[in-house]
Design a protein that fits this description.
The complex is a heterotrimer of chains A (about 260), B (about 290) and C (about 375). Chain A is built from nine helices and ten strands. Chain A has about 260 residues and is an alpha/beta fold. In chain B, a hairpin with a 2-residue loop joins β1 and β2. In chain B, α2 runs parallel beside α4, α5 runs antiparallel to α8 and α10 crosses α11. Chain B is globular, with a radius of gyration of 19 Å. By secondary structure, chain C is mainly alpha-helical. Chain C folds into two domains: about 40 residues; about 325 residues, ABC transporter involved in vitamin B12 uptake, BtuC. In chain C, β2 and β3 form a beta hairpin. The N and C termini of chain C lie far apart (about 50 Å). Classes of the chains: A alpha/beta (about 260), B mainly alpha (about 290), C mainly alpha (about 375). Chains in contact: A-B, A-C, B-C. Chains B and C meet through α4, α9 and α11 of B and α6, α12 and α14 of C.
């Protein structure tokens, strides 16, 4: 059975069909990538899955459950975490606190207990920190633990965002252009992490990415979209060889 | 019969609210900042006009006096943006809110130190004169207020639709960064918009003063004008005006037909109702942030 | 500069970074507790006033500094606290009941109002709270049987377990009562900030969209922040009512809301300490002006007493100065001075240079 099933998804902004009839299914433990030229609707698909936008048409199922009608904050507790294309971190908090915020879905205390800082709160805090330290070790973020986000270099922030998504403890992680703006070495790190997430953590990865090298290195399957419509689906080499995909890419490159 | 008088009076008062609200919206549209001192700018404009026009002060003729006051207030607006507001460019919106509230206090203190805190009356050529038509008495000041507001609205529309500066300001309000890149002098445009809203405030102040006495605390009327701007949707110039007129009309009606206290509350109750049902006002222009 | 080696998670979770920091807080509270023996009646009353302002300031700080919502009408919640407490006491209930009831009433009203209000962003919320303030003010005048209307109302003397805490008869006890409340609220506030609730406030403040993506219910979180903020402010209002003893709606004017904003902004947004710094400033400046007036009259022969609004004007100028030159407030300045001393002589100007942040637009076009 598929972990995530997207069926005939569409969203129209006024007359613009940003996403129009996209369907795909991601199997558990799979790395699935969505590629396409700028403005093809890749990030919009992510925003639909994480319920920032409501689709005009279509359904999204996670673990067999229809999540199309949920609110944005009800998605993470099911086990879906995401990163953002333009980094949406909490700028005035430390790296540690950002990752701890990722633990929100696992909170077990209410605000009255928190105010009195009852022993249960301290116990829960220790457990959260333990988990967060594991994530930091995995992503090699220890050096930045107590640094404010606002002062960190771009590359580190991208990694912190991945860390925050991992701290959620998800089944499915959505990575929105994890390698954009990174150096060759940094995007190689991202590739290794994605491998490890799948192998060691048993995560399923859904990724939007431009960097074809990264995509073909880590993806099991790829979906190509252009102008909101699906072009081709299959293994990375199949999709790259598809004449429609080549035309779409060449077309936009000439236009640029 | 006196219902008509009530309505005309309400529309005239509403025009003053609307003009102050227009000042907010001008600045908001251009800079995304809200000027909480707009009411106090109106107050200062009225006092400067009073200082120039009244016979026991400089005693200029009415029209040139008011024009000069508007020019001076334009300078004040320009100066506030150039020397104060620009300093905090890039700080969160909240900083500007507090900054302009503080500026309002400063303006109030300045006016109080020069003209004192007891109510003064601006000498206008149309003070206390009434027009009678078929048993209905309408004060000339109300008619003038409505006419001037209409004229000013048309003039502003023309400014934004046809002049170079107006067009540039429109471009800047759509997308500041893009306007900056294509060579629109965004900062200077912002200052000009502030100057413009200082001038509009002066006109509002003079119209307000034509209907009664003024003191340095009349700037608190700005709160009502806010309600007007919100009701109209913060980004819409005609909306602000209509919102103002709506409030101006409802207030005397509420005073007449509802128990005491409701008249004071009515603008805010309408505003809260609009905020709850249509959070972006009756003429929405806000859009969700892109991620 | 001291480097701390952390060997357990508790080191991070604890409120103070080491025993030294904890000792300093204990010493500070001890000095505050001993204040009635150290200063005269007049300054003790001023200190009490400062504590009440700090309490109200903390209320607004939670809202503005930690959950990123602006309120221009917080005086309304002070009023709700004061009137609830006084009216219930006049109905015969003891202070131990009416005081929490004041917090509850203000908190619930705040949360209730917040539910529609939290859908609004920045400027709209600010204006809505301003409108709310005007409405509450009018309501107070209308509800004369409970509030005394324009004439005002007398706050009865406080009695807890047979002990009097009368503001005039036993000022020292009233001061201790205020101090105890402030210490308790500060502790609870600090606890909140180191726990999931506080983190969810910060998350909502800094990025709503990613807060949602992490499973945080933004509406509920903001309403909770609003409610807690108003509850704290309600407590301050109740104490303020007893402190002034006889009050009407004018005690809670729009200027009080503005002064509260001043407390949090000048004090330092986003720091509990900022509320205290701000409260000290706002109670000290009128004192300073009074002294200055005396000096000006006696030695210079100038009477500046004839300039009403001078203190508001001075507050306004201070506020403008802080926003332009030190947006982090007094507490931020204090941190910089501390770092400079600790690093001496290695500190350099550039270390404290502000990060240039660019206009964050709310519009998408």
């Amino acid at each position: 059975m598929s972990l995530l099933e997207v069926e005939d998804l569409a969203i129209h902004f006024g007359g613009v069909k940003a996403v129009d009839g996209v369907s795909f299914a991601v199997a558990p433990g799979e790395v699935f990538s969505i590629i396409g030229p700028n403005g093809a609707g890749k990030s919009t698909i992510f925003n639909l899955i994480s319920r920032i936008y409501a689709p005009t048409r279509g359904t999204i199922r996670f673990n067999g459950r229809d999540i199309t009608g949920l609110q944005a904050h009800q998605v993470a507790p099911l086990g879906i975490a995401r990163t953002f294309q333009n980094i949406e971190l909490f700028d005035h908090s430390t790296v540690l606190d950002n990752l701890l915020m990722g633990r929100h879905v696992h909170r077990s205390t209410n605000f009255i207990q928190d105010m009195l800082f009852l022993p249960a709160v301290r116990r829960a805090e220790r457990a959260h920190r333990h988990r967060v330290e594991e994530v930091m070790e995995f992503l090699e973020l220890e050096a930045y633990r107590e640094k404010m986000i606002a002062g960190l270099p771009y590359g580190v922030r991208k990694v912190v965002e991945i860390g925050r998504a991992l701290a959620v403890g998800p089944e499915l992680i959505l990575l929105d252009e994890p390698a954009s703006g990174l150096s060759v070495e940094e995007s190689q790190d991202v590739a290794f992490w994605i491998e490890d997430m799948r192998r060691d953590m048993g995560l399923t990865v859904l990724m939007v990415e431009h960097d074809m090298r990264l995509v073909s290195q880590v993806s099991d399957r790829v979906l190509a979209v252009a102008n909101g419509k699906p072009l081709a689906q299959g293994t990375p080499s199949q999709v790259q060889a598809d004449p429609g995909v080549q035309a779409a890419y060449l077309g936009t490159e000439v236009a640029q | 019969m006196d219902l008509i008088q009530l309505l005309v009076g309400g529309v005239a008062t509403g025009c003053v609210y609307g003009l102050v609200a227009l000042g907010f919206v001008l600045i908001y549209k251009a800079t995304e900042g809200v000027n909480f001192a707009q009411g106090d700018m109106m107050m200062l404009g009225a006092f400067i006009a009073l200082g120039l026009v009244n016979s026991d002060h400089l005693g200029l003729a009415f029209i040139p006096g008011v024009a000069l006051a508007a020019v001076l207030m334009g300078g004040v607006g320009y100066g506030i943006d150039r020397f104060v507001v620009r300093q905090i460019f890039g700080q969160p919106q909240f900083a500007l809110v507090i900054l302009t509230i503080a500026l309002g206090f400063v303006l109030r203190f300045i006016a109080g130190s020069i003209w004192g805190y007891s109510p003064l009356v601006l000498e206008t050529p149309f003070a206390g004169r009434n027009l009678s038509m078929g048993g209905v008495n309408i004060s000339l000041a109300d008619i003038v207020t409505i006419l001037v507001t209409a004229l000013l609205t048309v003039a502003l529309w023309g400014f934004f639709a046809y002049t170079r500066i107006g067009l540039a300001a429109q471009a800047a309000s759509q997308n500041q960064m893009a306007a900056y890149i294509v060579g629109v002098p965004v900062r200077r445009i912002n200052s000009i918009i502030w100057a413009l809203s200082g001038m509009v405030a002066t006109v509002a102040g003079v119209l307000y003063a034509s209907k009664g006495a003024i003191d340095p605390n009349i700037g608190l009327l700005g709160i009502k004008a806010f309600a007007a701007a919100v009701i109209g949707g913060f980004g819409s110039l005609p909306g602000a005006l209509l919102g103002g007129i709506l409030i101006g009309v409802v207030e005397p009606l509420a005073a007449r037909y509802l128990p005491g206290g409701f008249s004071q509350m009515s603008p805010y109750i309408i505003m809260l109702a609009v905020l709850v049902t249509r959070p972006n006002g009756l003429f929405a222009q806000m859009h969700a942030k892109k991620v | 500069m001291k480097v701390i080696f952390k060997t357990s998670y508790d080191r991070d979770i604890d409120l103070h970074k080491d025993g030294w920091a904890r000792a300093r807080i204990v010493a500070l509270v001890a000095v505050m507790a001993a204040l009635p023996f150290l200063v005269g009646e007049y300054y003790l009353a001023e200190a009490t006033n400062t504590l009440i302002w700090a309490l109200a300031g903390m209320g607004l700080m939670l809202l503005v500094g930690h959950s990123g919502q602006v309120s221009l009408g917080h005086a309304a919640f002070l009023a709700i606290g004061a009137y609830t407490d006084t009216a219930l006491m006049n109905a015969g209930l003891p202070f131990v009941v009416t005081f929490p009831a004041a917090a509850l009433a203000a908190g619930l009203f705040g949360a209730l109002v917040a539910i529609p209000a939290v859908r609004m962003s920045g400027i709209y919320l600010a204006i809505a709270t301003l409108a709310l303030f005007v409405i509450v003010e009018e309501m107070i005048i209308i509800a004369e049987p409970i509030t005394g209307g324009v004439g005002g109302i007398m706050a009865p003397a406080i009695q807890i377990a047979g002990i009097d805490f009368d503001r005039y008869g036993q000022l020292d006890r009233f001061y201790w009562l205020c101090l105890a409340v402030v210490v308790a609220v500060t502790w609870a506030y600090a606890n909140l900030l180191r726990s999931p609730t506080g983190r969810s406030f910060l998350a909502v403040r800094d990025s709503e969209v990613s807060a949602r993506a992490l499973g945080i219910n933004v509406t509920r979180t903001r309403a909770l922040a609003f409610g807690l903020s108003c509850a704290m402010t309600g407590l301050a209002g109740a104490l303020m009512g007893h402190y002034i003893a006889f009050f009407n709606y004018e005690l809670f004017s729009i200027f009080i809301s503005i002064n509260l904003l001043l407390v949090v902004t000048i004090g330092g947004l986003g720091f509990i300490q900022g509320a205290f710094f701000g409260a000290i400033l706002i109670t000290a400046v009128p004192q300073a002006i009074t002294i200055l007036r005396g000096v000006a009259r006696d030695s210079l022969g100038v009477d500046i007493g004839g300039m009403p609004g001078l203190d508001t004007m001075l507050f306004a100028m201070i506020l403008i100065g802080f926003i332009i030159y030190e947006p982090t407030g007094l507490y931020g300045r204090w941190l910089k001075i501390k770092a400079w001393v600790e690093l001496f002589p290695l500190a350099r100007r550039d270390m404290f240079r502000r990060q240039k942040s660019y206009l964050k637009t709310e519009r998408q076009k």
